[in-house]
Specification:
Structural class: alpha+beta
Shape: elongated
Number of strands: 8
Strand order of the largest sheet: 2-1-4-3
Number of helices: 17
Strand content: 5-15%
Helix content: 55-70%
Order of helices and strands: HHHHEHHEHEEEHHEHEEHHHHHHH
Oligomer: single chain
Radius of gyration: 33 Å
Largest sheet: 4 strands, antiparallel
């Protein structure tokens, strides 16, 4: 300890001191830290919380497998440069275990039919329980990275054009996926809209009424597009965007229903669409801005931020990798069946903010930080220095700066040092001097 502090402070000394000359200063410093501990300042909740935060911050580079994280972030960033056309057949998960097994078996049977030459879109129309895509032969349009569960996304991005996956599990259900063409990501756009809502299964009369209303609004707006926000506030059935003049803010591919997305991305900035029909009814869309797709480096920063957010499903994949790595490093057994289940759940996108995995990782990180303290001198010295510096400040506040004794700080400190010398003894062994010499 003496050697570390002497070498650290040697370069900042106004007048160079030999180890023997520096020793009295070191003794006073160590006595003050001892006095702080005797006063229990190292046991307060605020001190323990501060130390834990610094301990974790200092250990962070060692708590994460940077090679794995880099490869994962790069994969996600590179995927974000491309949109992939996708179709799927989906059966929902069932509450009843037997019914759920039946759904899985049925997907396997559908995959068998596809392998034997049955038409994918026809099977999707007949069997898929995704009501929005089934009428379109299972088509989801073009999908973007980060918008779907990791297992679903990985299947789409790994399949060649026209190829079909094995069964994919997600929180919603069981899927068979067909990949299509690829195209460069179109970036993000900003738009406003006016909606006349048409309920699913509405009568032809209701449909005709909504179309008449949207056509009337469109004809008025053609004469004066600047009135778009006012019409949106007064006439739109979208309760979320109507008070904002129809503003939907920024969105990318895969964020909106396919019909809306196709129309919005086909517009130029400042251009208004004709009435567009979607599953929600009739829209008039005004495109108000656009941003090009960011480069890989910019995307990497966005992805890195996202995977570090515990609310993001991809965060759990990184977390589970860390559990496996740290458990192996410290020769700690983990329940392989339970761990495999957690990993599969993470790949499917099933996420809960409070799980056994979070608790296990916290425990393993504590073990790793203890190991770092015992085996890595640089980590131990910095942690001890931060602890001692914090305690020195707190005890100085208590003994000198906050005391109202009528004495100046210098006199108070001298009395404090004299008192400490009677209660504490600092020992510096000869071998520490020998290392410096």
């Amino acid at each position: 300890m003496f050697e570390y502090y002497y070498r650290k402070n040697a370069d900042t000394m106004e007048v160079h001191m030999s180890p023997s000359e520096y020793l009295p200063l070191f003794e006073v410093f160590r006595m003050k830290v001892a006095d702080a501990m005797a006063a229990g300042l190292d046991t307060t909740a605020s001190f323990l919380n501060e130390m834990r935060g610094f301990r974790e911050e200092l250990a962070r580079p060692c708590l994460v497998d940077s090679v794995y994280l880099e490869s994962f972030v790069t994969e996600q960033a590179e995927r974000s440069l491309t949109d992939v056309e996708a179709s799927h057949i989906m059966l929902f998960r069932k509450q009843d275990p037997e019914a759920d097994i039946h759904a899985r078996n049925r997907i396997d049977s559908i995959i068998g039919l596809i392998r034997h030459g049955e038409d994918f879109s026809t099977l999707a129309s007949h069997y898929s329980e995704d009501k929005s895509s089934a009428p379109k032969g299972g088509s989801l349009g073009y999908i973007s990275a980060g918008r779907y569960p990791y297992s679903f996304e990985s299947a789409v991005y790994s399949l060649p054009d026209g190829c079909v996956s094995e069964m994919i599990c997600t929180p919603a259900g069981y899927h068979v996926v067909k990949a299509g063409e690829r195209r460069q990501s179109a970036g993000r756009i900003k738009a406003s809209h006016i909606l006349k809502f048409v309920a699913p299964g509405a009568s032809p009369e209701k449909e005709k009424e909504a179309r008449k209303e949207i056509d009337s609004i469109y004809n008025l707006l053609k004469a004066d597009m600047s009135a778009f926000p006012d019409f949106a506030r007064r006439c739109s059935d979208d309760v979320g965007s109507a008070p904002l003049g129809g503003d939907l803010s920024w969105f990318g591919r895969g964020d909106m229903v396919p019909e809306f997305e196709k129309a919005a991305f086909s517009l130029s900035d400042g251009e208004m669409s004709q009435p567009v029909k979607s599953a929600f009814g009739w829209h008039i869309i005004l495109r108000t801005g656009s941003r090009p797709a960011p480069g890989v480096n910019e995307l990497r920063e966005e992805v890195l931020h996202r995977v570090q957010d515990p609310r993001d499903p991809r965060h759990r994949l990184v977390m589970l990798h860390e559990i496996e790595r740290l458990a192996a490093k410290h020769s700690l057994g983990i329940d392989s069946i339970a761990f495999a289940r957690m990993r599969d759940e993470a790949r499917r996108g099933e996420i809960s903010p409070y799980t056994a995995g979070d608790s296990v990782l916290r425990h393993l990180r504590d073990i790793e930080m203890d190991w770092l303290y015992d085996n890595v001198a640089g980590y131990r010295n910095l942690l001890d220095e931060y602890r001692d510096g914090t305690l020195l400040y707190e005890i100085s506040v208590s003994r000198i700066w906050n005391r109202d004794s009528g004495k100046d700080d210098g006199k108070l400190e001298k009395e404090w040092i004299r008192d400490m010398k009677e209660r504490y003894k600092v020992i510096v062994y000869e071998k520490e001097f020998a290392k410096i010499k």
